[in-house]
Amino acid sequence: MTQSLFPMPSTRFGSLPRIRTLATRGLIPIAVALVLLACYWYTLAPTVTGGDAGELSTAIHTMGVAHPTGYPLYLMVGKLFDLIPVGDAGRRAAFFSAVSAAAAGGVMAWIVISVTASGAAAALAGLALGLNWWVWPQANQPEVYALHIFLATLVVAMFVRWLPERSPRRLNLLAFFCGLALTHHRTALFLVAPALLWAAVATRPISARVLVRAAVCGALPLLLYLWLPFRSAFKPPFDWGNTSGGLARFFEHISGGLYARLAFGDTAANAWDQTKLLGLRLWRQFGLVGMLLVATGLVGMVRSRQHRPLGIVLLVNFALIALWAAFYKVPDKEVFYLPCMVAVAAWLGFGLGYGLLLVRGLTLSSSIVRFAPVAAVLVSLFLPLNMLVDNWNRADRSQQYATLEGIAVSMLNVPPDAVILLTGDEPMGGTLYYWYVLHPQSAPLVLSADNITHGWYRALLPPGLREAAEQAIRAGPEGWEAALVYAFRDHLAPERPLYTNLPVTDAPPGYVVLRTPPPLPLNRVVAAPGVPEAPDAGRPTAILQFPDGAGALLDVEIPRVVTRGEPFTITAAIRWSGASVRDNERLQIMFVHDSIATAWARGDMKKAPKELGLSVAPRLLFGAPLPASRPGYHYRQTMNALLSRRMMPGTYRAFVQLARPGSPRQPITLGAVAVR
């Protein structure tokens, strides 16, 4: 008699050796969660990272309102983690993500073990969910996606619990967790809708009263959205959307109406390319064995009468998420594929369970049957270990200080009465975090140029700046950003500093733009050119001379001892000689390690090393261009520097050079900095 490749509808996993006690069955999900949490802890971000991390950490810490859809559940639970006295607020928010993702892996292991009774299949599914290319990088930084995955696995778990009884009580529980998932991320609808629809149709006994009770249970968690206008009414430091401004504002925010134009906004060609990329990355993550198990689990679930509802719900969710993400017109599409990994991990675990069942059902030698569980354990170990090795470097954020340190350098000398006008999610989020979380007592006014086009945001501005913003918008789309900057400058008191990273180019008459170097190019716009103070005669100076006799007197003040990762200030004052201002003249100050400086000074190098050139080389620690001053004027600029946390302690030399087409790049040593 020919054996079927997959279990027939009447076949149960009961023919597999059962894990006998509930306590023993619970140990494997707990162990999976602890292993994942350990991996996340060792790769955990020490503070805020890029993207929305700064904004979300600020919203949690200040109990504010995040960008649409507001994420009330994330903000409220995140506040509990924010109370843990470990690290800064960004690290605590990252730990919240780690716990959520680890719990998701544990729940996935519970789902598989509760159906298949296979510990190997459960471990494989849980670890594959937590260590894959998509989930791990979101599990160790302040982001909303780890909680999204956890809630999705809870919905699947409640659906699995509903399946055996299909009772109204289990339907109410499923509806509650579906509502909870919808309070966090709107793409949860692609899982919630098929799960609730199937459960509502198949629940017995079914009646209008049963459906009304389930609807009430599903609607109760949605009341969490009322937290947003409640907090908005108290005017927190960070209030995205002004949700207390009326029902229209509230519903637009929680529905994500701002992003409606992005849905299915990409081209079919780009969507197809993205879908192929998804397939290639799945193949790379799981390999031939893993993809065969995924296919076995999918086909086996659909063919099995017991597991067909779960298989179809997961398949519909996978298809809808893949379609949505492929056509969603955003640069970071990868994160929208995360819910697909819930289905893939479940299919993977079920596939291993079906494989064990298939081996036991075939007429094979007893030695092969006895070896099958051992092979299953080896597979459940090999695939996660492969993902661990393959994804560790990409997911490791344990040394990711760059975002916050870059912001700290740029903001070091910004006074409390300044106005900072920024564009871009990462600069805005990092700046909000730096001021409203780390330095709330001296925080300047931080404004988003991206949101000024929205009426709700302009309504929150001080009256003078509100009129300035409306004036710039009326000027039209061409050059409105520069118009906004200069309109703000006109409405501010002359002594109140204005900083911006908007691309202001040539300053009109009556304005001066003082440009600062990366990591965050922050331009200071002043209403009229001043005459900076002259260098102090007692400080060390260096003469930079061109072949034709024109040159500059440079005075630099640097500290003698600094600590790695600690921002410090360099003050440079320039006095020009010569007859005219030269185009493209730039003064550069840079640090290189003492060993390189000594080798170059002794003549061991035939030419100045690349680290002394104008281009940023791997060992270049700091480079800052200074705009040229007019002849006869003194120009003084304070720059901020930061020695990387990864630099070894030692002595570092400061060099300066004046560069111009056709001029020599001869650097002059100014002094040394001892780094401890």
Please provide a brief summary of the model.
The chain is of the alpha+beta class. Helix content is 49%, strand content 12%.
Question: How would you describe what is shown here?
Answer:
It is built from 21 helices and 14 strands. Helix 2 packs parallel to helix 17, helix 4 (89-116) runs antiparallel to helix 5 and helix 6 packs antiparallel against helix 7. It has helices at residues 22-42, 53-62, 72-82, 89-116, 119-131, 145-165, 168-182, 189-202, 208-219, 227-233, 247-254, 268-303, 308-327, 340-361, 366-395, 402-411, 425-438, 455-458, 463-474, 480-491, 594-602; strands spanning 419-422, 445-448, 498-500, 512-514, 523-526, 541-545, 551-557, 561-562, 568-576, 586-593, 623-626, 634-641, 650-659, 668-675. It is 49% helix and 12% strand. The chain is globular. The strands form 3 sheets. A 5-stranded mixed sheet has the order 2-1-3-5-4, with helices on both faces. Strands 8-14-13-10-11 form a 5-stranded mixed sheet. A 4-stranded antiparallel sheet has the order 6-7-9-12, with no helix packed on it. By secondary structure, it is of the alpha+beta class. It folds into 3 domains: 22-153 and 265-395, no CATH class; 402-526, no CATH class; 541-675, Immunoglobulin-like.
